[in-house]
Request: fold
Amino acid sequence: MAEAYIYDAVRTPRGKGKSDGTLHEITPVHLATQVLEAIRDRNNLDTENVDDVILGCVSPVGEQGADIARVAVLQADYAQSTAGVQINRFCASGLEATNMAAAKVMSGEADMAIGGGVESMSRVPMGSDGGAMVSDPAVAIKNYFVPQGISADVIATKYGFSRDDVDSYAVESQKRAAKSWEENRFEKSVVPVKDVMGEVILSHDETVRPDTDMQSLGALNPSFAMMGEGMPGFDTIAIQRYPELEKVHHVHHAGNSSGIVDGAAGILIGTKEIGEKLGLTPRAKIRAMASTGSEPTIMLTGPEFVTQKLLKRAGMDKKDIDLWELNEAFASVVLRYMQALDLDHNEINVCGGAIAMGHPLGATGAMILGTVLDELERTGKETALATLCVGGGMGTATVIERV
Amino acid sequence: MSYETLSFEVDGDGIALLTIDLPGQSMNVWNQQLTEEFKKAVDEILADEKIVGTVITSGKDSGFLAGADLRMLGSQTQGGPTTAEIFEGAIGMNNMFRRMETGGHTAKELAKGATTKPFAVAINGLALGGGLEVCLASHYRVASDSPKVQLGLPEALVGLLPGAGGTQRTPRLIGMQNAMMLCTSGRPMKADEALSKGLIHEIAPHDQIVAKAKEWVKANPKVRQPWDEKKFKFPGGQGAMDPRVVPILAGSAAMSQVQTWHNMPQIDKILSCIYEGSIVPIETALRIESKYFTTLIQSAQTQNMIRSLFVNKQAAEKGAKRPKNVEATTINKVAVLGAGMMGAGIAYVTAKAGMEVVLLDREVAYAEKGKDYSRKLNDKGVSRGKLSKEKSEEMLSRITPTENYDDIADVDLVIEAVFEDPGIKADVIKKTEAVIGKDKIFASNTSTLPITGLAKHSERADQFIGIHFFSPVDKMPLVEIIPGEESNDLSLATALDYVKKIKKTPIVVKDTRGFYTNRVVPPYCNEAMLMVTEGVNPALIDNCARILGMPVGPLALVDETSQELGLRISKATREELGEEAMPRGPVDDLLELFVEKLGRKGRKSGGGFYEYPEGGKKHLWQGLEEHYPLADNQPSQEEVIERLLYSQLVPAAQCFHDGVVFDPESADLGAIFGWGFAPWTGGPMSHIDTIGMEEFVRTAERLAQQHGSRFAPPPSFRDMAEKGEKLYKAA
Reply:
């Protein structure tokens, strides 16, 4: 089987995902198009060599509907022969798209493919696609469905993370993100977003708040207490699944949860041969990939299980990983992962994460893979694991190794 | 064509008046015969060109139509009809109503403009279940302004769903959210609420409803239902695919889980009917409803619920256990002796039911205080708009507080609720019998003293009986009737007639220590406390009870009834039975620790397993772990649930074995309405039948080996298991 190599990783800066966010005026197609253009232009790519473009998108309706990947391919003036497909594994869509691109390359289906994602959360709000998981009573009731924020609070309660623990984590995430921007750690990947006139309108992640401290976070009210304790009472449903808990402690709020943002990302993946043919230098190879499912009510502990699965299948050990990257969906998700795998905070999310910079659902997986690749190169380290927690109790992970 | 259950006559305008009037019944219900005849009548009306339209009404003063005769639905599980046959039956009703509202036109024809003859309905009183559903399938609904009008779909309360279009026409008339409330709560609406929500079209003076309905029919000779219009829209949105409906759906699914703890499949299926049905046209939607209805009918759980919660409950309340040879008794005035918590509660329910009450205590001030309890409850009702000031005053005027035995001389029944002391009781019995009529019945509300023993203090032991209420009397639906050895039929009949008047559910039990419920609840609570002493997480214990379907956890229940009472009863019982029959155990230590050392005597006295912060929610007492540290290895959810379940099933089975309860029906009713035993099971005896006698015996024996002989199944149950018998014999 062929090896899959990463030749490039590109992302847009992340814009605040509200109507006053800078990227609100940019269509999601235009965001994805600019990523594809950057990959082509930075690598002098004859796009006839790109067999497929796989883009993650979590709310694929309206202007994000009808296979936005193929639409972006056409808008970016790629060769007509380049196919495009949109996929959805919720929050891990961007990483799953990358894994699928790699799998196509490994299996021989493609010589070269792009995996990535796009989400304009300011224009197509979360939940716009409805879905049986939330709406269909037969599904919601059978699976003890609760919103993710409740799940995050259940993790904090079950595994003993206090409000101070989650807030401290968030403060540190903000610090790391700010420092990384200061030190230009993201410059290799970030391509500024241009408007329809061709003018740059955003070159930095818009939601980073370097001055965040325990006091400012302490002033925020928990976001999920009302729906948990009041109507409709999701805490009780979580307790029905976890009867060992007397109650759920609500510790998460806007300041220690991932931000709602707009953005897009792409990873260029190909065989060794195609790289040689096109004169491209591989930056890393995909060492292992995995996805798994776990209990859907607590929902967000999948990364622990997918990591164990992946390491076992790849014959690897925890010690083989130099840098860890886990999407900061909620602070407790990362704290539980560190606890379960006995990781030091210095080895994980070293450049900050979605609490500071935001989580454009469909794109984040590809973004964090690019971030950790840049960081491996900057620090001269070899191997990294990127993973995300996923709705419905899933987890997706990828291990890359520099070449 | 001739009919027995209905009649119809056509007036000069060509309008048929179809009057439903079941012969020999006090209330109209959908039974086999009415269903068949109604179908024929609809066909006849549609075929007869001289008939321009129809008004449906009821020939009963008692109301319009009270729903389906649920006994029709019984015994469908074993060797009964196939899935397809049940579905055919269920869809039959839907097809009949559909034919009535379409005139036999297809949906396509209607969408293209076809119309049919109007059916209007004149609702003269309560219209529940299938009674409301026939109204919803009519084109126009006029309700009487009588306060007796109630419009509701109570199917969910007995484990069913509205299966004759109720789950489909309500969301199309009043919106999905309102429909979900109406169908899942079972709570009926008054006419004005129904009018404002859009469930009915008009309210008219009682004697004009038929005229008004005819007026509408005359003015609207060509009609079709709103949902057969091409451009039909759901009120408040476009059905389940409208994004605005998503939060409503998510919220309803969540709230149903919060309320049912996954124990009431009929609620889940009602939500599914409304959700799925809103995405498709009405005819497909009705088919979906009939299919979900079929799955419920086929489940043993639903059959158990119908049997216990409806059929047997009604039978008990109507006097199934009443001696037939005794003529109806007259109870207009009742003496309640002792105005403590129980006496005050008994006075309240008695006066509320319209009887005169003489409330007697040692001093009139105590008796007044007892009457204040009724005043407080009434004031609450008035402030919530559920009771008028006049009605409250009228009710209170029926309670006469006194300290003078002469005031009870002319009562029809005496209920004694004085302190649980044989000496005091003997004194009260003597003083009472000195003044009351020689043919009157004396009832004791004792919960701990044998009736036969107390009857010895009576000069008329044959007119002495136990009527055991539960606290709080105004809320608890069950009453245990305990005939003593010498009690005659008149005492039993009087007690049952009285319970019928106060609208509670009676079971007749044997005169033995604790009667029925108090022989089962203590072992159950003890099991929970024993687990605490073993280091089981108390949250797990109480939550597992909720998962099992209990209304509160056993530890919270102990707090309510109080550790102090638990300790007192346990000490008294040990004194009576001896140390050998009832050896001390860890639970005795726990109760002594709580009551004597920690001063945690119960919810109202220092707290118990829980803390009760003022104005806040209760939470587990943090100090418990100091005395009973959590074990490293916690039992699984399944293990805890099994112990909590079998610590009720086995003692209940033992009671049946010992003849404390005389039949499975009473054991089931007593459990559900006495201590809230998981209603979804239909009661402990129904549940044993459902899990299988062999399985019950096997599990009980395993638990006996693991945890102690208290779990050993009674011998007669082993016999039944061997013989492959059930508790409920096939009907």
Summary: The interface with chain B takes residues 127-128, 130, 134-138, 140-141, 144-146, 231-234, 236-237, 239-240, 243-247 of chain A (CB under 8 Å). The first helix of chain A runs from residue 28 to 42.
